[in-house]
Amino acid sequence: MSHNHIIISQDNILRQLVCGVLRKKNLNFIEAQELITEHALSDAVMVIDISDDDAASFSLWNMCQQHGILKRSIFIVSQEHTLYGDILEICGQQRVLPKPFTPDALYHSLDIFAPQQPAAAQPAEQPPAAAPPPQTAAPPSAPVAPAEPVPESAESMQADREGFMQRALDLSFEKMRELRAAPFAAVIVKNNKVIAEGWSEVIEKHDPTAHAEINAIRKACEVSGDYKLRECEIYCSTEPCPMCLAAIYLAGISKVYYANSVRDAEEFGFGHQDIAAEIAMDRKQRIMPSIQMMESEAYYALQEWQENYSPSGGYAD
């Protein structure tokens, strides 16, 4: 199917993140845990997660090469993976997303495959026009309609974005020096206006969840009176950790901007890559045991919610 997209990943969480990006771009797609011949023979754009399992990843990479789908594929792969250098060399930086990737990075990669608008046809050359007839007095001029508002220029939008990011950076310095807080802050913007700010209160409140992004989301939801922030953007002094990124997705925030990267933060002891790696693992392989019990007893709560308490329109979170 033309302009269809196929997501290949055994990682359910990663696959859902990709699905969210594709939905926001209004792209049609299907999900699969493995690449099959039917997928390879289609003309779909492939978004392929290269797992950390060496045997499985080498088999998948070889299949991609054999079926000649490299030119229409985006690869999500860890920079530590043995194949990372080969994939990067063959496919180029725009189509290789190092784990963990940001929604913006995937947006840019998908834009490579966006259908190009055909160039406007040039009008055929016209014969010379006949001489105009003698002019008569012009009728009274109609009143001039008010000018349409001028769309905001790209330069102006970039200046606004930099201003919002600067506010996040200023806030991170301010709270670090005032409260000895960790140097993280976040600003949430709606309709080009700041509606909420947050900073790290982990130390002050003895709360491991009191990250800047979480605090900003809580305040923004109070201001908007809704648990969804679909028309909002968030500006973070540092790339969100797995917990904050999950909260951003759950809140429905449309775009994330960040200054320092996860790797920058790791240099100073603020590392969460072990958590990201744990989440991506099968439950049985995680360091922290994750054991299911009393499922049948708990299931009744979900049924009662659906039958008696679910608001109209449902609750999908």
What's the quick description here?
The protein has 317 residues and is of the alpha/beta class. It has 12 helices and 9 strands. The strands form 2 sheets. It has a 5-stranded parallel β-sheet, with helices on both faces.
Describe this structure in words.
With 317 residues, the chain is α/β, with parallel strands linked by helices. The chain is built from twelve helices and nine strands. The strands form two sheets. A five-stranded parallel sheet has the order 2-1-3-4-5, sandwiched between helices. A four-stranded mixed sheet has the order 7-6-8-9. Strand 4, helix 4 (84-91) and strand 5 (96-98) form a beta-alpha-beta unit. The longest helix is centred in the middle third of the chain and has 26 residues, at 154-179. The protein is globular, with a radius of gyration of 26 Å.
| Sequence of strands across the biggest β-sheet | 2-1-3-4-5
Report the end-to-end length measured between terminal Cα atoms.
31 Å
Give the biggest sheet.
5 strands, parallel
Supply the helix-strand structural class: alpha/beta
Number of helices: 12
Query: In percent, how helical is the residue content?
Result: 40-55%
Topology diagram in text:
Blueprint: E1 5-8, H1 12-24, E2 29-32, H2 37-41, E3 45-49, H3 54-66, E4 73-77, H4 84-91, E5 96-98, H5 103-111, H6 154-179, E6 185-190, E7 193-199, H7 202-205, H8 212-224, E8 232-238, H9 242-251, E9 255-260, H10 262-266, H11 273-280, H12 295-309
Parallel strand pairs: 1-2, 1-3, 3-4, 4-5, 8-9
Antiparallel strand pairs: 6-7, 6-8
